[in-house]
């Protein structure tokens, strides 16, 4: 489990945030259970962590001045030009209660499909993440879309994704089976 060191910040506002960024710190906020806390985290640690997809699909330990709590990354902002994280939002969670998160979609076995091998086609994702309700103790790295049996012209929906135990699609719970991928290629 990833542990992130943080400190409570007393100053708020644009000027204070600029000074923090100048000192290689990132202003952050922790929402959720209890009170909202304004904190700072190390920029280098956050920049490299945000490059990994797994960082968004795991429960993190946030150590604020020595007190640890379980959190997930809810949102973040980057500078439009510089390689700089400008802000991060964390959400405190209870690991015994389901939590709503966005899980990435991973296409598997597309190279084995008839559409790719014989019809010169490709699988194109329409969505890259799916809103899901998950058990925090069993958060998967992503949801798999098995494309081994697809042919040109197929449209794959949320119901075609593989959902591990403890994971439910929010849209499917609302009886909305949205399209997640299309398959192109020459029809034979």
How would you describe what is shown here?
13% of the residues lie in helices and 44% in strands. The protein has helices at residues 14-22, 43-49, 114-117, 170-173, and strands at 3-8, 25-31, 37-42, 60-64, 67-78, 85-92, 99-108, 122-125, 129-134, 143-146, 155-157, 161-162, 167-169, 179-184. It starts with a strand and ends with a strand. By secondary structure, the protein is mainly beta. The strands form three sheets. A six-stranded mixed β-barrel has the order 1-3-2-6-5-4. The protein contains four helices and 14 strands. The longest helix is centred in the N-terminal third of the chain and has 9 residues, at 14-22.
Overview in brief:
This protein has 4 helices and 14 strands.
Task: Please render the helix and strand layout as text.
Blueprint (H helix, E strand, L loop, with lengths): L2 E6 L5 H9 L2 E7 L5 E6 H7 L10 E5 L2 E12 L6 E8 L6 E10 L5 H4 L4 E4 L3 E6 L8 E4 L8 E3 L3 E2 L4 E3 H4 L5 E6 L4
Parallel strand pairs: 1-4, 2-6, 7-10
Antiparallel strand pairs: 1-3, 2-3, 4-5, 5-6, 7-9, 8-14, 9-13, 10-12, 11-14
Instruction: State which percent range the strand residues make up.
Output: 35-45%
Overall 3D form: elongated
What is the rounded Rg?
Answer: 20 Å
| Count of DSSP strands | 14
Report the span from N to C terminus.
50 Å
Instruction: Please report the number of helical segments.
Output: 4
Helix content: 10-25%
Q: Largest beta sheet: what is the strand line-up?
A: 1-3-2-6-5-4
SSE pattern: EHEEHEEEEHEEEEEEHE
**What class would the helix/strand composition place it in?**
mainly beta
Average the pLDDT over all residues and give the rounded result. Answer: 90
């Amino acid at each position: 489990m990833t542990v992130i060191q943080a400190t409570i910040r007393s100053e708020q506002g644009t000027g204070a945030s600029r000074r923090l960024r100048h000192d290689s710190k990132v202003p952050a906020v922790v929402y959720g259970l209890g009170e909202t806390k304004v904190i700072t985290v190390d920029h280098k640690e956050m920049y490299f962590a945000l490059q990994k997809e797994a960082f968004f699909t795991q429960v993190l330990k946030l150590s604020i001045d020595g007190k640890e709590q379980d959190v997930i990354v809810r949102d973040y902002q980057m500078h439009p030009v510089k390689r700089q994280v400008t802000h991060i939002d964390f959400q405190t969670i209870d690991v015994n209660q389901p939590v709503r998160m966005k899980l990435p979609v991973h296409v598997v076995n597309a190279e084995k499909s008839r559409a790719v091998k014989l019809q010169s086609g490709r699988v194109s994702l329409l969505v890259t993440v799916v809103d899901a309700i998950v058990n925090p103790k069993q958060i998967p790295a992503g949801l798999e879309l098995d494309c081994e049996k697809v042919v040109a012209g197929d449209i794959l929906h949320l119901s075609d994704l593989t959902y591990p135990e403890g994971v439910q699609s929010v849209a499917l719970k609302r009886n909305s089976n949205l399209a997640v991928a299309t398959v192109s290629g020459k029809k034979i």
